[in-house]
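Project standup — Tuesday

K.O.: blocked on the structure for the chain from last sprint. Re-posting the sequence here as requested.
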Amino acid sequence: LVAGSVQMVKRGVVLEEAPAPPLVRNYRCSGRKLEERVGFRPALTPLESIADMLRRLDLDHVHDFFHPRYYNIAWMTLLDEMYPVLRPFESAF
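H.V.: unblocked you, prediction finished:
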């Protein structure tokens, strides 16, 4: 969905196939239980969310995605490295 949406705004996308890692989790999910139990229903569909992100992103400066503000893995790595300092707390995440 994301690659197709990016192509629709006239940007190139190269998808590379790689061997899939062994499945250890099932990422299929449904919001049915969340809606039934607490009444939450997302305001946007996945396609609407993608369109909203593409409107907000400056696609001419994609190198900015390596900045920690946008790159969650760098933040998670930093938090993991800081965990010994944060020992009084149960988790850094």
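K.O.: great, moving the ticket to review. The mean pLDDT is 83. DSSP finds four helices and no strands in the chain.
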